[in-house]
Amino acid sequence: MTKEPEDVSTTIEPTVRVETRRQPMPPRERLERVFQIENLTASYGPKPAIRNVSLDVYKNLVTAIIGPSGCGKSTFIRCLNRMNDLIPHFRQTGTIRYHGQDILARDVDPVAVRRTIGMVFQRPNPFPKSIYDNVAWGLKVLGMRDDLDGRVERALTQAALWDEVKDRLKASALSLSGGQQQRLCIARAIAVEPDVVLMDEPASALDPIATQAIEQLMHDLKRSYSIVIVTHNMQQAARVADMTAFFSISTGEEGERFGELVEYDATEKIFTAPADRRTEDYVTGRFG
Amino acid sequence: MSSADLTTDVARRPFTGRRARLGDLVLEGVAGAAALAACALVGLIAWKIVDGARLSLSTFGPGFVTRIAWNPVAGREVYGAASFLFGTAITSLAALLLAAPLAMGIALFLTELAPRAIRGPVTALVETLAAIPSVVIGLWGILVLGPQLRLHIEPWLHSTLGFIPLFGTPSPAGASIFTAVVVLTIMILPIVASISRELFLGVPQELKEGALALGTTRWEMVRGVVLPYARGGIAAALILGLGRAIGEAIAVTQVIGGGVFIHWNLFDGGDTLASKIAAEYQGATSKLQISSLISLALILLVFSLVVNLLAQWIVRRAARSHGGGTVRP
Amino acid sequence: MSVHGLSRSQQRSDRLARRRAVNRLMETLAWLSAALAVAVLGVVVWSVAARGAGALNLDLLTKPPVPFSLTPVKQGVANAFAGTIVIVGLATAMALPVGILVAIYVNEFARPAARSGITLALDVLNGVPAIVIGIFVFGLLVVGRGQSGLAGAFALACLMLPLVARSTMEVLSLVPSSLREASLALGVPRWRTTLSIVLPQTIGGVLTGTTLAVARIAGETAPLLFTSSIVGTQVSWDPHRALQTVPVAIFELSESPDPADHARAWAAALVLLVFILFASLGARWLATRSRRKLGAAR
Predict the structure, then answer these.
(1) Which is nearest to C124 in space by CA: C167, C158, C89?
(2) From 1.10.3720.10, 3.90.1150.10, 1.10.530.10, 1.20.1250.20, which CATH number describes the B83-321 domain?
(3) C273 touches B at CB < 8 Å
């Protein structure tokens, strides 16, 4: 399925379709930066996962990370809220400045980082508690006890789940469908009022209808939050993201394979006029 | 332009000034202390036993393990472990010899032969046998099994196989090494069987099908594929069973009769290291006698350590050669 | 030529017949081994039930033993039941929290090297013969102080600790890490995640492991011989004194020449056996239930 390069600008139909819904993006210089990532290198034991990644994440935008599997997308996003700290032998170098402060610095408390930078995972992982308690538990533990019911309702409403569950808040979260569980996890994450929501392939375990609901949700949520989403689905990135970063697997001098950032730009630029040959091959389906 | 300039009105919680989280420290500290205590307990057991055995060992020297004696009469006190070592060796090895093929048979039955409907129940029954306390097995052994063996099995074995010294004249006392062997066999059988069962379950189906596809019978498949694959684990299971037999005190004390001598007649009484300790629980009075009892415990402790570490080592080696198969005591 | 070929196939079918016969023999032996094990269980349980049921009455549970009576009197082993309840209860109270904490440390905090070290220590502890544990506690707590229910309970706790710790470790490792991550990603600290999210998931499994461990130590005699066996005949609940226990009582009665003592031994053994079998069955039932629950949470 080789295509001529000149087809690139016209072949990717979903991009064009989403284009109509997207607000025109202001010039990047005028956007506030949430993350400034410089030379981020991360490795599990001796094996490097990503090398020298540098990019800026902007406020109130959806930033998508795409790339072939094994390119370090998940490793990258899990660096942004120090989730990788939990993995033995994990090491990272470089800087991740969040509103100016380096969250990789030694004296930073990863728990405080995660408190502000929330995360939604690949597979829905509700607590084995009731629907209500899934949202309320975090609030209680983190000391946001005032107006608990109101906070739970607002979070579930924001996650577009309230109407479906308002009559059975005491039911087990495990009784929900996969898509509802994932929206519950999003509600749980935004209930504690984070600044950024990281989403690690949030729709990969869901059916198309549930996926559509989650994508619609992202459009709504970016008014209040900055969102970073990892996806292996290019069309999804084209549909939801304002900015897109393309990661790829490179081979080092000693034959070691690692992920690196190839290109980072406005989503429509990545999908219609990529600057790098590797990006072009990937978005036109000529990878592998 | 510095990044700080970009920060707008949003109130940022500072991440820095990391204070050690008290809750994390407390939980890790308390849990770590518990783990340390568990490890220290092992050390404390070893130290306390060695310490208690010191008097006896310094009095008798290495001769303690080669002397056949247990004389607590004041002024003429002399103790040695040789007859108990012999008793332990003969009872546990004989029990292992009897239990090993039976356990293999049970494990093969449960994994290869049993109809699906009875597989679960029989597995549960075999495990239930392991749950019966040794004192109850011993009670049964002394009051039911012992008399039966003495009246029927022992005379018959003596008259047919009497030319072998092992099957000598049955002792009229009723208690015998043979009863202890049967009781120990019953006790280690379910342990070896259930470990072996798990090992056999771990043999890849492809290997078994590969053998059967060659036209082998089920037994040939078992002998050619299942047993060799599980070899390391089986060895470890047998060693753990041996360890259990060496350490069993109560049931053996109840049925073995006692006596400080070395003989090859299975139908006469004797003592093992463990049964001797248990038998003396009310009688040890002098410091030297207590210390000698603790010396017997020390020998048992060394045996149990060797047995366990050996089994672990075998399992690890087997696990390295092919991914599967874990054995735990 | 054809004759030769025939004889060869004849040979082959002979060999097949022999192979079949060997297979048949081995399969029969395997069936017999399993039948033997089940039969032994049946005979032991039946012996205890048949002999114990006759002697089982309320006196056994409520009346203390009467030593050296020349006339038949109503007596039981009430002191042993009281002692077993006290000692097993105390042992559980000692071993359960420590075992759970050890498992939490190994699963949630320890580095791989420490993890395998502690696991090895637990396995070694599990392999120490019960009688050696008894001698150890005798040297540690009894020499100079005398026997006591507390010493007996400590000895049983030494046996129970590795059982509880290993079974808790097993269920902790079944808790999906996605649950831990979900909580940590909210900015909940680790200790809170462990206590509020991870540990509640393991209650069923811990209960199963504890029940099995209790069933195991309730029948242990060897650790108590040197720590809590030289006792009076009175019913006592005071752990500072040596307390009689059911297994030690059975042990002593079984070595008596008096058939009346044997009868009481059988009856006590029946009670002990019923307790242990019910506890094992209950644990089995709990295990399948909690496994189903964990499976659903995955």
Answers:
(1) C158
(2) 1.10.3720.10
(3) yes
pLDDT in tens, C123-136: 999 999 999 999 99
Which of C186, C193, C181, B3 lies closest to A194 in space, CA to CA?
C186
In 3D, which of A95, A184, A90 has the Cα closest to residue A137?
A184
Distance CA C207, CA C282 (A): 10
Rounded to 5 degrees, what are φ and ψ at A264? -140, 120
> Which chain C positions have a beta carbon within 8 Å of B242's beta carbon?
none
Entry field: residues in chain B: 329
DSSP-based three-state secondary structure for A80: coil
Give me the CATH topology for the region C78-297: MetI-like fold (1.10.3720)
pLDDT for residue A287: 59
Residues of A in contact with B2 (CB under 8 A): 100
Q: How far is A27 from chain B (nearest CA, A)?
A: 15
Total Cβ atoms within 10 A of residue C174: 16
The CATH code of the domain that includes A139 is 3.40.50.300
Are A200 and C196 in contact by the 8 Å Cβ rule? The answer is no
C-alpha to C-alpha distance for C157 and C136, rounded to whole angstroms: 13
- Chain C residues within an 8 Å CB radius of B21: 189-191
Running DSSP on this structure, what letter comes out for residue C242?
A: -
Instruction: State which H helix or E strand residue A41 sits in.
Output: strand A33-44
pLDDT at residue A2 tops 50 = no
Q: Which residues of chain B have a CB within 8 Å of the CB of C33?
A: 101-106, 109
Q: Which residues of A touch B (CB under 8 A)?
A: 32-33, 36, 97-101, 103, 105, 107-109, 111-113, 115-116, 195
pLDDT grade for A10, boundaries at 50, 70 and 90: very low
Q: Where are the domains of chain B?
A: 83-321
Number of folded domains that form chain A: 1
Task: Give the pLDDT of residue B7.
Answer: 38
What whole-number distance in Å separates Cα of residue C116 and Cα of residue C118?
Answer: 6
pLDDT, averaged in runs of 10, over chain B (329 residues) = 38 57 90 96 96 93 90 86 94 96 96 91 92 95 91 86 82 84 96 94 89 88 91 92 95 88 85 92 83 95 94 84 51
Q: Which amino acid is at C19?
A: R
Which of B47, B102, B135, B191 is the mutation pick for testing C, counting most C CBs within 10 A?
Answer: B135
Write down the domain spans for chain C: 2-55, 78-297
**To which residue do tokens 């020449």 refer?**
C257
User: Could you say which of B102, B143, B297 has the minimum Cβ distance to residue C33?
Assistant: B102
Contact status of B17 with chain C (Cβ, < 8 Å): no
Residue C119: count other Cβ atoms within 10 Å of its Cβ.
19
State phi, psi for A55 to the nearest 5 degrees. Answer: -160, 160
Name the least confident of A262-276, B114-128, C71-85: C71-85
Residue-range definition of the domain harbouring residue A182: 5-23+31-283
Name the phi and psi angles at B170, rounded to 5. Answer: -60, 135
3-state secondary structure of B309: helix
Number of other residues whose CB lies within 10 A of the CB of residue A89: 11
- What is the DSSP-derived secondary structure letter of residue A65? E
Q: Which of A102, A109, A111, A193 to mutate to test the interface with B (most CBs of B within 10 A)?
A: A109
Residue percentage of chain A with pLDDT more than 70: 91
- Residue B18 to residue A109, Cβ atoms within 8 A: yes
Distance from CA of A81 to the nearest CA of B (A): 12
ipTM of predicted complex: 0.90
Residues 121-140 of B with CB under 8 A from C: 122, 124-129, 131-140
Residue A288 lies in a domain: no
CA distance A172 to A166: 13
